[in-house]
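Sanity check

After download, print the first record. It should look like this:
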Amino acid sequence: MFAVVFVLGLLYHTYTDLKYMLLYDNVTLFLAAVGILRTFYEDQSADAVYGAGVMLAIMLLLYFASRGGMGEGDVKLAPALGIWLGLEQGLLCLLQLTSLHRRQQKLFRIQLCCCRQQQYRRSFLHLTFQEHCS
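Expected structure tokens:
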């Protein structure tokens, strides 16, 4: 039951993040509250506290280092994920997300480079065609 709530909350966050670029605080707080209930039910409160604290600290460092490149909703979501995942899995999650973000940036740069080359070719062909027609 707890896992279903976690997955549905993350799916809703994914939807709102992709559509509106927003992570709603009430959904994050709900995920954190249900995560806290789960940790008491499964007696894993120490790992949840460590996970939430370390995830928050890392995301705050990244937030201030990025100078506006990351939203506040991401920072607020990190402790909730730390509650759910604990310290070890939370750090693995951050590592995988960082790796995924790097790959996405490289792909975007390649696409941008290809688009610029195509624009240059089009403008060059257009100028060449105009020179011959005039």
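If your output differs, re-run the checksum step. Summary of this record's structure: Residues 72-133 form the longest helix (62 residues).
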